[in-house]
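Course assignment 3, question 2. Fill in each field.
Student: A.L.
Task: Predict the tertiary structure for the chain below.
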Amino acid sequence: MRINNLSFKFDKNGPDFFKDLTVEFAPNQVHFIQGDNGIGKSTLFNILQGNIEHDAQLDASVTLDGTTYKAHNNTFDTRFTNQIHTVQQNYNRMIADQFTFKENLQLANLPSHPGLHSLPKATIFDVMQSFGADIVNTPAHSLSGGQRQLLAILMSAQKSTRMLLLDEPTATLDTENAKMIIECLQQLAVELKVTMLIICHDKELVKKYSDHNCYVLEKNSDGQRLIKFES
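Answer field:
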């Protein structure tokens, strides 16, 4: 995915928050985004989701899978935003505790209009098994924190997802579960052909798994946010 010349203001008469920002993310890979608190990481995610205030001002286009979508009336075309899904920090709100891991995935795969629906992509279960995650029929309330996070991520990767945005997916996990989640994400990105952007403050984790896919948001002397590739 490529973001083209993104300019954004929280208020039409206010200063530029982003100014002509252009950045490209290689497809079907995991990319880490770092930066100080309040620098604009969540704002960038909100823009990509089409979730900004009415009195803001957005001018940009994005290119995904060879198709370019231009922002109009402060949001991107739903043909683009429908391909973007987000896993929030409070991922527990996504999960129905009374259902099993598999049943939650099936619920996430329901169409807009109820009817017969297919099982989740078989690849998902293949990836889980490769990590020894024999939890398909386990009730959600019996899952560990890492397993619940994995479930929320897999639920978001259903349907027409081409880009997955993750806000601190490992923030509440211990070291082993954090590694498991990142390794699983890297495999899912390839198998499901999904590009993933991860906000992560854990520099050691990023250093271990970024594989040169790390970007840092910074602020210049005018207060405008820049995004830099960090090798």
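Instructor remarks: Residues 113-120 have pLDDT under 50 and may be disordered. Helices lie at 41-49, 78-81, 101-108, 122-130, 145-156, 175-191, 203-209.
Grade: pending
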